[in-house]
Request: fold
Amino acid sequence: MKRRLLDLLGCPQCRQALDLSVTHEEGDEIMEGELACPGCQRKFPIVGAIPRFVEKQNYADSFGL
Ligand SMILES: [Zn+2]
Reply:
């Protein structure tokens, strides 16, 4: 994801602005990292330059249905 996207993203849970921590960056593209919400303490990984807003728990629940 582009770093400037951070301005557009908010926590899907409580709409707070997210804190970004980058572990791997290529040019202006953030490849790996984490978005953290200071409001509800949720964390969202950035994997393959895509922020993942679905929690692992939800994947498991979906498979169970
Ligand atoms: Zn939040």
Remarks:
- Helices lie at 56-64.
